[in-house]
Amino acid sequence: MFRTHTNGELSLHHLNENITLSGWVQTIRDKGFMIWIDLRDRYGITQLVFDQDRSSAALMEEAKKLGREFVIQVEGKVIERVSKNPNIPTGEIEILVEKLTVLNESQLPPFTIEDQTDGGEELRMKYRYLDIRRNPVKDKLIFRHKMAQKVRNYLSDQNFIEVETPVLIKSTPEGARDFVVPSRMNPGQFYALPQSPQTFKQLLMIGGMDRYFQIVKCFRDEDLRADRQPEFTQIDCEMAFVEQEDVLEIFEGMTATLLKDIAGKEFGKFPRMTFEDAMKNYGNDKPDIRFGMKFVEVNELVKGKDFKIFDDAELVVGINVEGCADYTRKQIDELIDWVKRPQVGASGMVWIKFQNDGVVTSSVNKFYSEEDLKKITEKFGAKEGDLIFLMSGNENKVRTQLSALRMELGNRLGLRNPKEFAPLWVIDFPLLEWDEETGRYHAMHHPFTSPKPEDVHLLQTEPGKARANAYDLVLNGNEIGGGSVRIFDKDLQSKMFDLLGFTKEDAEAQFGFLMNAFKFGAPPHAGLAFGFDRLVAILDGNEVIRDYIAFPKNNSGRDVMIDAPSKIADEQLNELELRLNLKS
Amino acid sequence: MFRTHTNGELSLHHLNENITLSGWVQTIRDKGFMIWIDLRDRYGITQLVFDQDRSSAALMEEAKKLGREFVIQVEGKVIERVSKNPNIPTGEIEILVEKLTVLNESQLPPFTIEDQTDGGEELRMKYRYLDIRRNPVKDKLIFRHKMAQKVRNYLSDQNFIEVETPVLIKSTPEGARDFVVPSRMNPGQFYALPQSPQTFKQLLMIGGMDRYFQIVKCFRDEDLRADRQPEFTQIDCEMAFVEQEDVLEIFEGMTATLLKDIAGKEFGKFPRMTFEDAMKNYGNDKPDIRFGMKFVEVNELVKGKDFKIFDDAELVVGINVEGCADYTRKQIDELIDWVKRPQVGASGMVWIKFQNDGVVTSSVNKFYSEEDLKKITEKFGAKEGDLIFLMSGNENKVRTQLSALRMELGNRLGLRNPKEFAPLWVIDFPLLEWDEETGRYHAMHHPFTSPKPEDVHLLQTEPGKARANAYDLVLNGNEIGGGSVRIFDKDLQSKMFDLLGFTKEDAEAQFGFLMNAFKFGAPPHAGLAFGFDRLVAILDGNEVIRDYIAFPKNNSGRDVMIDAPSKIADEQLNELELRLNLKS
User: Fold this and answer.
1) Number of continuous H segments (helices) and E segments (strands) in chain B
2) Which residue intervals of A82-134 are DSSP H helices?
3) Pairing, β A386-393 against β A432-435
4) Residue B130: pLDDT over 90
5) Distance between CA atoms of A408 and A191, rounded to whole angstroms?
6) pLDDT beneath 50: ranges in chain A
7) A429-441 per-residue burial string, b: 16 or more CB within 10 A, e: under 16
């Protein structure tokens, strides 16, 4: 061992002990007669001191040659600091160095290895191994590890078995695009990398495994949007002989365990909301319920007053922004511009101020009397000092637009404290969604999701209205997990494939093995999966998942550090019996 | 929940309780007036009873319609059994069924779901989900999970951080063949699947992560030998600021923890053996030390007696098989035939019997007096009743052949009890091995392995003699883990690449990012990796790793259950800008 202690553990308890430390040179303060060095490792920082009165001239000379990020080993004695630093655990002591060994030199790093670095994103990704030395990055990776351990221990204690499912599987055109892997031993054939272990976990249930989980890499060859990775990690789970309630209970327990660890408090029963209510009240299937501004629909109060925009609208709906009646015209105009941006796409917005003097005024005073406006404020439960925004238009679109405004105001008003946690189950999702483009239904969750028993009859008549036994776990406005009760009856599964437009042959080719398995006694089962990267980010009060991945890829799917993907040798292609067919 | 209890937990404590169970119909015994059913789930078996005196006619009728592997739910009362079964935990009770619900029917499964099944390997693989219902398979997967949990908790307690390294990386021609993944977003370029996270874990050390581990899937596109899988799982570990001794200590502790859990005893310090001694004494770098039969070299006792075979041999070496002097001529001839098989390749074998009557005789009495033979038996430390086998020839070959014989005799004599565990560190491996075919050195471990400091000078003069700071952990004659102290000096690493025949350009293209990272303060580091599939198999007293993989592939790399790999759609190939180039 190159050290007796780490750089995070020495204190006055170790006074006068002879110790050995190793680590990286973080900073050097050279006053000529004295040199202080901050020595860093994963565990912290310890101050080293070289002093011409107490250190040999040779040692002083050696110390002067050190540079940032040199890897050194020192032997010395723990002494009390004259000027203590209360901000770090080792701040009361320093090491009077007696022997210095340079284990490895370092070029000047391309950016400073400090909490606030001068390195841009691009550069830090190229030198990710240096970026990881910085506390903000290192701490996130350690946090991720701790969460994974907690999840594994919680689920193991609940009798779940982690089973590794294969990575080299079969390509299925349903869902997102697969990454494929040519098989050299089976020329012309390809494996696919799993988008999720969905079918394998269902097969494990048919295999009697009863309670399965896995923290597992999944893959999607999609055009990358910001903060989407081609490989990502799921906590994947499945249970047999259960109903929806059992699944919610287990994973509520798991999430509460993580939250308690982080927030230091019990979270009790998580609230639940139907998809329908979420859309109606928040315009969003993953509402952030840390703050209010619930939607209020006012069609009956605003129509028939000759305000054509409202008269023509399918829905007029608004939110009450408490205490913001003193917003200036400029502030309001800025918000109106904000909702008109193409990303939101609203055509405009009406405001109503319930002023502190009791007067109610609005941007549509021409059409509505103060009496009319008061009725609206009453419906909102607004009080003096509140500001109401109203939006109108197509029902679905206006809800989405108003939701965007609500979230933006939540951010601006500081109502989205990342250290506050508001978990929420959203349940009763629609089974299907109609796709205008292909003119057919898509499974909203996936094709194995069970309709609610009371809605099965709708499959014949109005499939779009059938609800599913599907549920999402939402945390602070982010979907962190989702799942469903599965179909376990082969006839119902067949019917689902029909509804989704699969031919018998396609269904057989893609899911034949699962359909076949259903013939041999499939138990009732249900499950869910958490997006682990996102879960960890949000639990840590952050929304950028990339920061929680040790070696992430950029938006073109490239690892700029190792320079992958890259060309491969012609012999490799030959062995795979493949040829490039480049279009440009 | 479809049950109040599992099928493994009811006992006389629950007498007269009304309970609900779910599971699969394991067996049906229908006596007409009474029907007994064994109901199975992951947790055990509970006997159900239907009795025409106590059950309704309708219920009897329903029960008669059940078949094997039907999934059912029953409500009933716990009653005491008349004839108890002491072999199962629930053997003192049975359930008088009051209500029966068929949750799912089952076709007759293609093989019996019992500990001893009538299903052949091929069939069981095709219906792996049914095979997993069988205890021997299910128990192995649960065992694997428990071992993984223990490993994770042990390493986490030791301050190791599990970091997920990427699966989509860069192809390097060194080592085994990579699986590659065409990148649609970067046409003509490919990712590779990792053969191990070697470079990433070294980068994590450079990144200051200090103690890293990961239980991780790795991939090798090799021609599959029996029991080799294209995807396999490693416990991958790396530590910084450590020397070999520190690594051995940590992972000895980890292995001892697993062994203690299984064997119920402390294992103390693991013995250590140099590679040289292992080869000399056992002809093998992974000796099974559960039994003796150490090699004894007898050149000086057998040469110069006109026995040409021994006179011409580079090495004459043997083993003493205790208590086997009464082997018949037939038994011995059979063993001689065994070593002559092409898999072993010996040209013959000499035997010496130290008979119970004190007489020493041999197959080469013509050349050696009883006096000569006695001297040999003395060197072996043989006693009355022992049998010595001698083999001769080229030093390396004869050791390998004798090692095969030793292992075979160990098996035949029952000296390799799978429930007995003998861990062993083999250390001081050679750094390089000469490859006749390519006429150059290969890294015995890998190109990042550090030579022993005292052997560095040999790299200039006799590289083949340089020893490495490399170590294997051997358990019962199997290598379960291996690792090394790494080179952390960029100049030494450069020299190694030279020795291994890399051009500067190749080294740069393949390992440029690692070499570059070495410039920024790489700490001393070392690590190792366990083959998790094999480790688990051996800990469970088995050597077939396939049994410990939920969904293994066959020897052609196929998953016969899902039928992968398979053809992909032309559009998929087009999107990837690839064309098939099939040779036949």
Assistant:
1) 17, 23
2) 121-126, 128-131
3) unpaired
4) yes
5) 44
6) none
7) bbbbeeeeeeeeb
Do B459 and B466 form a contact (C-beta atoms < 8 A)? yes
Could you give the 3-state DSSP secondary structure of residue B426?
Answer: strand
Beta-bridged to residue B73, according to DSSP, are B22, B101
Two structure tokens written together for B489: 């000096």
Pick B569's closest partner by Cβ from A105, A128, A173. Answer: A173
Q: Most B CBs within 10 Å: which of A111, A142, A248, A520, as the mutation test of the B interface? A: A520
Give the domains, in start order, of chain B with CATH numbers.
12-104 (2.40.50.140), 140-273+424-548 (3.30.930.10), 291-415 (3.30.1360.30)
d(CA B318, CA B321): 10
Q: Which residue is associated with the tokens 């500990």? A: B115
Instruction: Give DSSP secondary structure letters for B242-299.
Output: --HHHHHHHHHHHHHHHHHHHHSS---SPPEEEHHHHHHHHSSSS--TTS----EE-H
The yes-or-no verdict on residue B173 having pLDDT over 70 is no
User: Are B167 and A217 within 8 A, CB to CB?
Assistant: yes
CA distance B440 to chain A (A): 21
What's the token pair of residue B312? 């011409």
Task: Tell me the H-state helices in B466-531.
Answer: 490-499, 504-517
Closest Cβ–Cβ partner in B167, B578, B582 for A187: B582
**Contact call for residues B81 and B110 (beta carbons, < 8 A):** no
Alpha-carbon distance of A530 to A251, in angstroms, equals 10
Q: What are the tokens at B105?
A: 């029917």
- CB spacing of B69 vs A520 below 8 angstroms: yes
Q: How confident is the model at residue A176, as a pLDDT?
A: 81
Per DSSP bridges, beta strands A211-219 and A296-297 are unpaired
% of chain B beyond a pLDDT of 90: 87
By CB neighbour count within 10 A (0-12 exposed, 13-18 middle, 19+ buried), where does B508 fall?
A: middle
Look up residue B40 and give its two tokens: 């199975």
A261, two tokens = 């660890």
Distance, in Å, from the CA atom of A349 to the CA atom of A334, rounded to the nearest integer, reads 11
Query: pLDDT value at position B385?
Result: 96
**Are B521 and A69 an interchain contact pair (Cβ–Cβ within 8 Å)?**
yes
Mean pLDDT, chain B, whole residue set:
95
Test the B interface: residue of A141, A164, A209, A519 with most B CBs within 10 Å: A164
User: Which tokens hold the place of A563?
Assistant: 């320079």
> Which pLDDT score, from 0 to 100, does residue B114 have?
93
Distance CA A173, CA B569 (A): 9
What DSSP assignment string belongs to A306-330? S-HHHHH-SEEEEEEETT-TT--HH
CB contact under 8 Å between B169 and A24, yes or no, is: no
Calpha distance A295→A396 (Å, rounded): 13
CB spacing of B208 vs A568 below 8 angstroms: no
In chain A, DSSP finds a helix count (H) and a strand count (E) of 17, 23
Cβ contacts (< 8 Å) between B133 and chain A: which residues? 207-208
So what's the ipTM on this one? 0.95
Task: Tell whether pTM > 0.90.
Answer: yes
Which residue of chain A has the CA closest to B153? Answer: A149
DSSP structure string for A343-364:
TT-----EEEEE-TTS-EEETT
Question: How many residues can be counted in chain A?
Answer: 584
Predicted confidence (pLDDT) per residue in B520-566, tens digit: 999 999 999 999 999 999 999 998 899 999 999 998 899 999 999 99
CB pair distance less than 8 Å for A149 and B149: no
Whether residues A138 and B521 touch (CB distance < 8 A) is answered with no
Strand pairing partners for A388?
A320, A352
CB < 8 Å to B3, chain A: 241
User: What SS3 class is residue A262?
Assistant: helix
